[in-house]
């Protein structure tokens, strides 16, 4: 049913609440006809879609990750990891779209971004002590072992070899996605699966309900990256990046950033949480209420 709504550009249009539209302020992507949207979408997505496009950014993403981890581990006081992750992700996006690594520009735009998306970027990170840490670290060490001595940086092919890591990322997207809902508005009276949705009514596409449905994901409440071994989700049952004409064009870039970050984190750092038993809230997104207050510790200095 969710997929049907996402794929139906005739009977549904974007239906975000006014507050979100105001914040997004991206008229070309929100407030236009379908054909205008297709045109703008092509312009916006060209720099971030496909192997070749992503390869261009890999080295800079690595620099951003390496420098950020170095900086975080040098801090004397605990940091709110989720806020810091948001900054890392923001630096990468500014680099991709504006070609800038100027700290002042990043800081300036970043503070507006933080106000808007406060608390939204909250993907939980694997940390030492978690069940999956050992397997994840072993996979990253294997990548280094197989690397020719002359190669100093990560390659996109190596990222593709991070199979277990990609399963962990999928499982995080399934269980704790930051895009908690997508919003549509019916443009005509429409009957879906026997339910009449009157024209003008809002529809919330609640992907979490599908991601947590045991029909598609046995023991859905369990965080189990291995469920992705030799498994592809059926069409319409894995929607972390939405679907249809509005499918998120940044999905591969987001996964690449996460993989690069975890590669360096797993190999060289560990996390010491200040409140490991801290309550985890689920609405609108899943995150520990202390924003994961923690110290990042460099292993060699530990
Ligand atoms: C884990 C990270 C991300 C998640 C979970 C996510 C999720 C989503 C979802 C669900 C949509 C569809 C919204 C709808 O149908 O109403 C979307 C759209 C979009 N996303 Fe993402 N996104 C992520 C990262 C990114 C990144 C890194 C970029 C850019 C660098 C990006 C750029 C966009 C754009 C431009 C759209 C609008 C596409 C359109 O309307 O045609 N996203 N995202």
UniProtKB/TrEMBL annotation:
It holds the Pfam family p450. Keywords: Heme, Iron, Membrane, Metal-binding, Monooxygenase, Oxidoreductase, Transmembrane, Transmembrane helix. The keyword Secreted does not apply. PROSITE patterns: CYTOCHROME_P450. Belongs to the cytochrome P450 family. The keyword Transmembrane helix applies. PANTHER family: CYTOCHROME P450 26 (PTHR24286), CYTOCHROME P450 88D6 (PTHR24286:SF199). Its cofactor is heme. It is a single-pass membrane protein. Heme binds at residue 248. One of its GO terms (biological process) is brassinosteroid homeostasis. It comes from Trifolium subterraneum. This is Beta-amyrin 11-oxidase. One of its GO terms (cellular component) is membrane.
